[in-house]
Specification:
alpha/beta, Aspartate Aminotransferase, domain 1, 2 domains, seven-stranded mixed sheet, four-stranded mixed sheet, 12 helices, globular
């Protein structure tokens, strides 16, 4: 008898936290649903936030098959029509003025490119990010990000500062107090040092929204100190929050926006940097000179993703469905003791488990009952369903969360 997929995985891959070994294998996925190696079918409301248009969208499958027959690859020093079209489409959708684009294969690629642009454009090398933030696994992204445990055993870039998060600490701190502490820390560092860039998610993917005043005030600070504002929208862009860009919820324009994850349609790895045209300052450097930077297959995935989001009205759908789902989850919280809070914007949603020690047990119970969730900040079950998820599927997920509270209690 052959070993299971997971046993073979454990034997074949180098071990690493969160990736190898694992306890389940994907064997099928479509829409909001997936199947594991045991035949267990479940709603995947995690999906690494890569499936905004759902898994295996038929239009995406057809587009990639067509592209495979037309042009399957373009090496470096060549461009391709799909790559140019995707860059044009991204720049046209960016609401902050004339823009230029770079393409990559991962969110970490795009963060690295954004940092390089900031360093060259400002002539500075120091950065600020928020404690607890995550911006990718590459060494530069790890250095700049605020997750200390992830970077502690690796060499780090110099001049990477980490300040109080703009979201509450989970120990009674209010959102206003957290934002005020974060702003004061930013003000201190920006006025006292030559900072190239502030890097942050405009809306933390858990999700946490800062008060309305926060980003406009940070934007003014950056303007006054010659610092660039980089918004990481890898998990929250492309309609997830009910606006195409999460930053559109605030009156604060970034200098650079970074996209990834769902840009590849839940099939291919694709990321992008969208920057103000004035930041086209490094023609002499290989800012993002990756082998697959202008790969026509990857670009076609991005093109079709944007078209599907637009043609199917998925941004407005995320806003509407998310509002209704949050109403249902808030009612669940009011009627039971297992959850303390439901929060969300668009289809970025989370529920806080009343007993943080039971978080992973609750997560596993949800999976057994047919719902795959994320877990964050030691107390939240996070839900990131596709924008194509039906109201019935969202209601089913809420029912599973309610049953999980009883089953785990």
């Amino acid at each position: 008898m052959k070993d299971s997929i997971c046993e073979r995985d454990a034997a074949a891959f180098l071990r690493q936290a969160g990736s190898t070994p694992v306890t389940h294998a994907f064997t099928a996925c479509e829409g909001a649903w997936a199947v594991d190696e045991s035949g267990h079918r479940f709603l995947d409301f995690h999906g690494n936030t890569c499936h905004n248009i759902g898994y295996a969208h038929p239009r995406m499958i057809a587009a990639l098959k067509e592209q495979l027959d037309a042009l399957s690859f373009a090496p470096r020093l060549f461009t391709s029509e799909p790559a140019v079209t995707l860059a044009e489409m991204l720049a046209a959708r960016w609401p902050y003025g004339d823009a230029r684009v770079l393409l990559g294969t991962s969110g970490a690629d795009a963060i690295e490119m954004a940092l390089k642009i900031a360093f060259v454009a400002t002539g500075r090398t120091q950065t600020i990010a928020f404690n607890g933030s995550w911006h990718g696994a590459a060494l530069g992204a790890l250095s700049v990000g605020g997750t200390a445990l992830e970077r502690e055993e690796f060499p780090a870039l110099e001049g990477c500062h980490h300040v109080h998060a703009y979201w509450p600490d989970g120990k009674g701190e209010t959102a206003e107090a957290a934002a005020q502490a974060a702003f004061e820390a930013l003000e201190y560092y920006l006025k006292g040092r030559d900072i190239a860039a502030v890097l942050s998610e405009p809306i933390r993917a858990t999700p946490h929204l800062p008060p309305a005043w926060f980003w406009p005030e940070v934007r003014a600070l950056c303007d006054n100190t010659g610092t660039l504002l980089i918004f990481d929208e890898i998990p929250t862009g492309l309609g997830k929050t009910g606006r195409f860009f999460a930053s559109q919820h605030f009156d604060a324009a970034p200098d650079i926006t970074v996209l990834g994850k769902s840009l590849g349609g839940g099939i291919l790895p694709l990321s992008a940097v969208i920057a103000r045209a004035e930041l086209d300052v490094a023609p002499h450097l290989g800012i993002g000179h990756y082998t697959h930077q202008k790969n026509p297959m990857l670009a076609r995935a991005g093109i079709e993703t944007l078209r599907i989001i637009e043609d199917e009205g998925l941004v407005a759908a995320a806003q509407r469905k998310g509002r209704d789902a949050l109403d249902i989850l808030s009612e669940m919280v009011r009627n039971g003791a297992a959850y303390d809070e439901a929060r969300g914007i668009g289809l970025a949603i989370a529920v806080a488990v009343g007993n943080p020690e039971s978080l992973m047990e609750m997560k596993e119970t949800c999976y057994r009952l047919g719902l795959n969730t994320g877990a964050a900040d030691g107390r939240f079950l996070t839900l990131s369903p596709p924008l194509t998820t039906s109201e019935a599927e969202l209601s089913e997920a809420a029912g599973i969360l309610a049953r999980a509270a009883t089953a785990s209690g």
